[in-house]
Write a structure and sequence with these properties.
The protein has helices at residues 3-6, 26-40, 56-67, 83-93, 103-119, 136-145, 164-170, 176-181, 193-206, 217-227, 231-247, 255-269, 276-288, 290-332, 337-351, 397-405, 410-419, and strands spanning 45-50, 71-76, 123-128, 157-162, 182-188, 376-377, 381-382, 386-390, 434-438. By secondary structure, the chain is an alpha/beta fold. It folds into 3 domains: 3-16 and 192-268, Helicase, Ruva Protein, domain 3; 24-188, P-loop containing nucleotide triphosphate hydrolases (Rossmann fold); 376-438, Membrane-bound Lytic Murein Transglycosylase D, Chain A (Roll). A 5-stranded parallel sheet has the order 2-3-4-1-5, sandwiched between helices. It has a two-stranded antiparallel sheet with strand order 6-7. The model is unreliable at 267-297, 303-310, 334-364 and 366-381 (pLDDT under 50).
Length: 443
């Protein structure tokens, strides 16, 4: 594994939908804000559509984590089922008894549960992932679930997530009633080429990487080209490139390494279906002969390195000569006039009696704001319902408040101050820093 070689705390390009690794591209921000607002206002039906590998499941987990403790939720993955099985999956995920009950009894059990949760002040949200696999009959059953409602609100909120086939399915005349009930339609698109580098840096930082420039600019450009901005493909290319780089003992991933890793990945991805049994048989033989194969691989690698040793030595000598020449030029260069001016200015300031250079004042946006009177719980903790957010590149407090809360005013800032007493200067947000935001700010 390359974790120790590159000093990672954990795998940065895993395949599990970990909400910590969600990179908030402009499209992800917009989708998350739309879904959150739809849940908060009780819109009933919401949908999220994205191509495979775009991170929609990770976004749903982020949304679920944001509302955890404030709602009762169910997450359904088994979408290749009939209507009866769907209701059973739903009741089971909600912790309700369904054994030996028919469809009418299960509906009655669900209805009673929804009323109990409503009286307790909790919303019930059902997330259905890979919803494009649902048949028209099951989709009609899902629509009927939205009929659970009181006189002034929906008792159940449903989020349908799926691939573009879901949007095409909903255009059918037979599903017109369901399509009309979807109040929020969110979509995720591919990452622009300029965002791919930020995406990779974000995942490396979460994984504990302390260095800089692990991937060269040429490597990042090639990753963006080969992955077409799809996060899952970005992860696969980066994982293969890091594995190859570790095998070659390369501390920096170059475009050459990425190109070779992408070629290997492409050949695996596009293997013909008829060759699958042969590949499985080959893997079985490989397991049996693994010690011998490892020995052969070791000898081949040594031969390969031997053939290229002379070429690499020549390149190394040329680079050393170039470095010595440039270093000599740099040492012989004179001090720039601007630097002399700055030194003179500081010297004159000291000569006039200044003990230290003047400090730059930082304006505190919290200064002068009314202190919100907020009840405290336990050991002085704020009782405001809140959620955590990890700061991304180019984030500002104003933009985050407008995006997530819908407004930016003194009341919001006061509540943020209560939730984040350690936040002294909101104009200086560090990437990776965690900040709490009020779930529902006071009006």
């Amino acid at each position: 594994m390359f974790l120790d070689f590159y000093q990672f705390r954990e795998q940065p390009f895993g395949v599990t939908p970990d909400p910590r690794y969600l990179y908030f591209s402009p499209g992800h921000r917009k989708a998350l804000a739309s879904l959150s607002h739809g849940i908060e206002t009780g819109r009933g039906f919401l949908s999220l559509v994205a191509e495979p590998g775009m991170g929609k499941t990770t976004l749903l987990f982020q949304l679920l984590q944001r509302w955890r403790g404030h709602v009762h939720s169910a997450f359904l993955f088994q979408t290749q089922c009939d209507s009866r099985e769907l209701i059973r999956y739903l009741l089971n995920d909600l912790g309700l008894e369904h054994q030996g009950k028919d469809i009418v009894q299960m509906h009655s059990e669900l209805n009673e549960f929804l009323f109990r949760e409503t009286l307790a002040g909790r919303q019930v949200i059902v997330f259905i992932d890979e919803a494009q696999n649902l048949t028209d009959t099951v989709l009609e059953t899902v629509r009927l679930l939205s009929d659970f409602e009181a006189t002034n609100k929906k008792l159940l909120q449903i989020v349908l997530a799926g691939q573009p086939e879901l949007a095409q399915r909903l255009l059918r005349p037979g599903l017109a009633q369901l399509r009309q009930r979807i109040a929020v339609e969110a979509r995720l698109g591919a990452l622009p080429a300029a965002e791919v580098g930020h995406y990779i840096s974000h995942r490396l930082q979460i994984a504990g990487y302390q260095g800089t420039g692990l991937f060269t600019p040429g490597a990042l450009g090639l990753i963006a080209e080969r992955s077409q901005g799809i996060p899952r493909l970005i992860n696969n290319v980066c994982f293969n490139a890091l594995s190859l780089g570790c095998a070659m003992q390369r501390k920096q991933i170059t475009a050459e390494i990425v190109r070779e890793a992408a070629v290997d990945l492409s050949s695996e991805t596009h293997a013909p279906a008829a060759a699958v049994p042969q590949q499985q048989a080959a893997r079985a033989v490989t397991r049996d002969l693994r010690p011998s194969l490892e020995s052969i691989y070791s000898r081949m690698r040594d031969n390969f390195l031997g053939r290229h040793l002379i070429q690499k030595s020549v390149v190394f000598l040329v680079l050393c000569c170039l470095g010595i020449y440039l270093g000599a030029r740099a040492r012989s260069a004179t001090v720039p006039p601007a630097a002399v001016h700055d030194v003179s200015s500081v010297s004159s300031a000291v000569a006039q009696g200044s003990e230290s250079p003047p400090e730059r004042r930082v304006t505190d946006p919290f200064h002068g704001l009314p202190t919100a009177i907020i009840p405290q719980t336990g050991a002085g903790e704020s009782s405001i319902s809140s959620f955590k957010y990890m700061i991304q590149p180019k984030d500002t407090l104003r933009d985050l408040c407008v995006l997530m809360l819908g407004r930016y005013d003194s009341v919001v800032l006061s509540e943020i101050r209560q939730l984040n007493p350690e936040l002294r200067n909101p104009d200086r947000l560090d990437v990776g820093q965690e900040i709490r935001f009020p779930l529902k700010p006071s009006k």
